Amino acid sequence: MEEKTLDMLETLEEINKVRLNFSESNVLWLNIAVAFIMFGVALELNLRDFKQLMIRPRAVFVGIASQFLLLPLFTFIIIVLFKNHITLTVGLGMALVAACPGGNVSNFFSALARGNIALSVGLTAFSSIAGLFMTPFLFSFWGSLTVSVFHSGDGTGLMRHLPIDPLNVFLTVLLILGLPLVLGIMFKNRFPQTTYKILPTTKRLSIIIFLSIVAIIFVKNFDLFLKYIPYIFILVLIHNGTALALGFFSGKIFKLPHRDCKTLSVETGIQNSGLALALLFNPLVFPPEMEIGGMTFIAAWWGVWHLLAGLIISGFWSGFKVSPEHVQIK
Questions:
Q1: H-type helices in the chain, by residue range?
Q2: Cα Rg for the chain, rounded, in angstroms?
Q3: In terms of pLDDT, which residue wins out, 190 or 13?
Q4: Fewer Cβ atoms within 10 A, N terminus or C terminus of the chain?
Q5: Cα angle vertex 125, ends 123, 107, to 5°?
Q6: Does residue 227 carry a pLDDT above 60?
Q7: What average pLDDT does the chain have?
Q8: Distance CA 162, CA 92 (A)
Q9: Distances from the Cα of 162 to the Cαs of 148, 157, 313, in angstroms?
Q10: Which long-range contacts (CB under 8 A, 24 or more apart) does 138-141 make?
Q11: What's the whole-number mean pLDDT along residues 276-304?
């Protein structure tokens, strides 16, 4: 057991020195892809979505707490439990993903799972806007605590760069998250009919673009993923499984309807890992000389796995026979 632990730690330490094969033009397209996805999210935002949040305040409170409080907290607990098996950069990668808002495909998975779609859209809208401020704050706070856990014996050179500067994170999030949201809302208000026509295509295209970016990262680094993915896979599996469980059982504890619990599970377990990658490839946030291979591998594999996990769990739930009121959309 000790030999396996040592082998895992040595492998993850080796990852730190690995830089993914991802050119500057690829980084530019990644930023454009994330921005386009958020533009598409904004096209769906309606005042009634936020009114729906007021109608179900308990479900909303639990969803927000699960996303922004419980997930980062339990992520830190996982990091502490695995501190002798993982590296600082891997822990920071997990903290970064947990600090990001929910992913845009969560609405699709919630619908597939026969969850509360109105609640899903409302929570996605809230987390996307709140992410402007919560992502920099959460990553700075929990990232600094993660650094303190690995303070002794750290040789990655990350110490001299941390604590993380939340201002640079905020500026990046503002550019690729906030600006597209504002433009999308303005476009919808100015051209409502056009928005109605292009919305289905925009949603499909945004998902295709994101999958394409993830596929490019995977294909261009195929040999590296084959070498290191067994250890990264286990960590992401545990992390994502925890996120999905947190959302679901938080709803159960507060005696929410079953379809609300499914929605909270999806909203907590589907993270905007594209934003995490955009932050990692931003030299203002993480200078090129920093050895952050562990962070990029965590974020990149999250981009693949949470889509597979979303399909699996929502497909599983969609197979249940439920009464008509469970699938009614008000």
A1: 2-16, 24-44, 47-55, 57-65, 71-81, 88-99, 106-112, 117-149, 166-173, 179-190, 192-220, 222-253, 258-269, 273-280, 293-318, 324-327
A2: 19
A3: 190
A4: N
A5: 65
A6: yes
A7: 79
A8: 11
A9: 10, 10, 37
A10: 138/68, 138/72, 138/95, 138/98, 138/99, 139/95, 139/96, 139/99, 139/164, 139/166, 139/169, 140/164, 140/165, 140/166, 140/169, 141/72
A11: 80
Question: Which tokens is 167 given?
Answer: 């201002």
Residue 193, strand partner residues: none
- Angstrom distances, CA of residue 22 to CA of 26, 219, 300: 6, 11, 12
Q: Report the candidate in 80, 104, 103, 88 with the shortest Cα–Cα distance to residue 15.
A: 88
Report domain extents, the chain: 25-317
Secondary structure (3-state) at 71: helix
Taking alpha carbons only, the member of 190, 206, 242 closest to residue 82 is: 242
> How many Å apart are CA 235 and CA 19, to the nearest integer?
20
Distances (CA, A) of 26 to 30, 121, 216, 220, 286: 6, 30, 9, 11, 17
Cα–Cα distance measured from residue 201 to residue 76, given in angstroms and rounded to the nearest whole number = 38
Q: For residues 62 and 264, what is the distance between their CA atoms, to the nearest angstrom?
A: 8
The architecture that CATH gives domain 25-317 is Up-down Bundle (1.20)
Give the pair of three-digit tokens for residue 59.
């479900």
* Residue-level length of the chain: 330
Tokens describing residue 106: 């969560």
Confidence grade of residue 324 (pLDDT, cut at 50, 70, 90) = very low
Which of 130-139, 150-159, 166-175, 209-218 has the highest average model confidence (pLDDT)?
Answer: 130-139
Q: List helix spans (H) across 17-56.
A: 24-44, 47-55
Q: Are 299 and 263 in contact (CB under 8 A)?
A: no
Q: What 3-state DSSP class applies to 49?
A: helix
